[in-house]
Amino acid sequence: MKFVSRSDSRSDIKIFTFHLFTSACFDLDTYVHDSRLVAYLGNWQSCPSAAQVAPYTHIVIAFAVSYTWAASKNQCDTQCNIAVPLICNNSPNPALVQQWQDAGKKVILSFGGAGMGGSWNGDVNNCWDYCFGKEEQLASQLVQIVKDHNLDGVDIDYEYCYDVAGGRHGGCGQVTPAYSDAAAQNFLTGLTSQLRQKLDEASTTKTYELSHVPMDSDLVPSSPYYQLLKAQHWNLDFVMPQFYNSITRPAQDGFDGSGSGQVSASSVYTSIANDLFPGQPDKIVFGFCISDCSVTGSNANGFQAANVMEGIKTYNNGEFACNGGAFFWVMEHDTNNSFSNPVSAVLETTSGCIDAGPGPSPTPPPTAGTSVPTSPPTTGTPTNVPTPAPTSPPTTVSPTPYVATVAKYICTKNEPLPATICADGSVAGGECTTEGQENSCGKGGKVCWWNAGCPGTSGPPPAPTTPPPTPTPEPPTSCSGSGTSCSQNSDCCSGNCPSKGRNPYQCK
User: Fold this and answer.
1) Could you tell me which residues are beta bridge partners of residue 137?
2) CA distance 184 to 214
3) Residue 249, class by beta-carbon neighbours within 10 Å (0-12 exposed, 13-18 middle, 19+ buried)?
4) Can you tell me the distance from the alpha carbon of 321 to that of 171, in angstroms, rounded to the nearest whole number?
5) What region, left, alpha or beta, does residue 167 occupy, with left being phi > 0 and alpha being psi -120 to 50 degrees?
6) Is 201 in a helix, a strand, or coil?
7) Which of 9, 325, 342, 492 is the most exposed place for a label (fewest CB within 10 A)?
8) Which residues contact 391 (CB under 8 A, 6 or more apart)?
9) Spatial separation of the C-alpha atoms in residues 352 and 323, rounded to whole Å
10) pLDDT tens across 440-499, in order?
11) pTM for the model
């Protein structure tokens, strides 16, 4: 895969995704969980006016890097030290950052980009290699920069190698001896978890955002990148797939078509929405490229992008009507908001849908005789096969299997789905002692999210028996009275040391 790039005295300018959130069209106190409009700002490019940024919800500063730009090959810092990032026009501008934040925008720092190294054929940069094994150090640097410059979070733009053995990349001949698939995958996993932990611990009053902006080809279920993000999806506020320059062409094919692209954007999007983030399309910010992707035929104007976003909302009878919004590369090409205004108009129609509750009812099926064009499935097997109705009612009904339930919890900042708590949580009774309160299980606004109805053991219910009389327990030789600390029932004169509630537990 080849990406179009330009260079100046500072940066290698690649078409990659980043985030922006804020808009004069949005009440940001309400609409921060969906319908985002994220704009990338190249820090070598001109500073935008207040009118320019008005439709955006997030502004992503691209990029923080660990190299010095050079025309032939960027000079990597072998210790993965990050230069203090600039804001725009190759200069720092803290007053402008504050102005954006005062207008309700989130200002995110993007780390990475093409200049750190790419996986496509012909790329020569390999600065990521020098960061492998330094995940904690790198996370600490990024969080300190965010704090020092009063930013609102971190985005990871990793478009480098991670699955050479699997034949996933077109290039990767530039890697150093420090590279291995395992080192790259461990880096992505470790950096994500370290950033989430350190961002949460950085403030008790401010919530920092964390995102990744992978290429669409890296977000198919067979990709190790997809799987490692899935394994810790609760650490991410959202992902921003780059639906350009790779396997999809939504500007030409629409959301649910293919032909110009190898696969439909809907096939990639559906996997992310229903598997990586189970049932959470609000965690997906759909990526567009305005002007820099002509070589791959991936450019999209505002009306094409608006059509794609409308297609997402109506897909499969409105399955993704409440979604995470859109991002675009790059702000300087949004001339007179010709891209952002049409897209913003579509996003406004459902903005706030997460907080408002269920969206509009699905469109009813067409009446008999109405012809509805459909796209052919990408595989030979339909995902849902209708079950024929029985010709006669069954003669017997199997008893409902017995399922015991257990209470589980996850300690994290963002609320997981109940199914996620059951699948990935811990059995109740550990560090989470107070449900739903900040800092009840960790720093940085972490909350105990409970699900008391997780399935336990399955099988037929035990046969009813008449229990023998319960003997009255003899009091322990040394016991504690009501209200004193205990760890087990035998510590209490009453024989009752509850295992739930405040820790340390107290005799009843």
Assistant:
1) none
2) 14
3) buried
4) 37
5) left
6) helix
7) 9
8) none
9) 10
10) 566 666 777 776 666 664 444 444 434 444 444 444 345 666 666 666 666 666 666 664
11) 0.69
